[in-house]
């Protein structure tokens, strides 16, 4: 059975936007519409909702009725051009709930999950539109670069051993599938890691996904464009799920505040309540940060 996506920090994130009924709100990661419905419930007829998702299948989820609701397929790194196409100059609130939905990892044929044997692609959109796939990285890139990626984007302290093992294996046979890669990482990991609660390949898979989709650059660019697109007192709220993303958000917000573009509302990130964590343990790494434009 496919697991359903549970919206994380639902009320906290929508409250963070301090929505007025006539506001224009951008939901940059529409997903399965969980935050969307909550946002829309705060808007009246004159309010406007724009939902963006890079994954076209996400946009098939139903949303509650609102006259001015628009769903757009695209990457949030194209925020300004998407708004321009819709003839929107300024918005009052922007939400991004980063990462992926469970459905996206289970069986979309792109090798995001080490539990399913699929081709190693890991592209969010069509593979042909990307300069390289995960397959290219593991089969063609230098061992040191590979290790840097696994360490830098996966924060895996066994990155060097994993990279070494990948390179040793690919000399014999090309690495084509997700399970093949997961087995290599498993074999390269020390026994203590193998016995752990988390699969040893988790961090390597995260690292490859970030590299293929250029996720951190996309996030930086999205933050800059968001702040530029906000009306005075407009708010940007971002939920992250790993420390690399959280660091980008924290630093960008600080830089924007230092440049007197606005203020950081959250001195410390908002995290899920005990009740939410009991119901959805996957929310444990979520952090919400809020910025308000001057
Ligand atoms: C955690 S889900 C969002 C869930 C949503 N807030 C909800 O309540 O249902 C993240 C979504 O963001 C999308 N996404 C990830 N990176 C993106 C990007 N760079 N641009 C646009 N959408 C992106 C994914 O396809 C996924 O559907």
Topology summary:
Blueprint: H1 10-16, E1 24-27, H2 34-41, E2 48-53, E3 69-73, H3 79-85, E4 91-97, H4 102-105, H5 134-140, H6 143-154, H7 159-172, H8 178-188, H9 191-194, H10 202-213, H11 215-229, E5 230-240, H12 243-258, E6 262-264, H13 274-279, E7 287-293
Parallel strand pairs: 1-2, 1-4, 2-3, 4-5
Antiparallel strand pairs: 5-7, 6-7
Helix pairs in contact: 1-2, 6-7, 6-10, 7-8, 11-12
The structure holds S-adenosylmethionine.
S-adenosylmethionine binds at residues 5, 7, 29, 31-35, 52-55, 58, 75-77, 97, 99-101, 218.
What descriptors fit this protein?
294 residues; alpha/beta; Rossmann fold; DNA polymerase, domain 1; 2 domains; 7-stranded mixed beta sheet; 13 helices; 7 strands; binds S-adenosylmethionine
Helix content: 40-55%
Q: Can you tell me the residue ranges where pLDDT is under 50 for at least 5 consecutive residues?
A: none
Q: How do the SSEs run, as a string of H and E?
A: HEHEEHEHHHHHHHHEHEHE
For the largest beta-sheet, the strand count, sense and barrel status come to: 7 strands, mixed
Radius of gyration: 20 Å
Number of domains: 2
> Roughly what fraction of the amino acids lie in strands?
5-15%
Rounded mean pLDDT score:
95
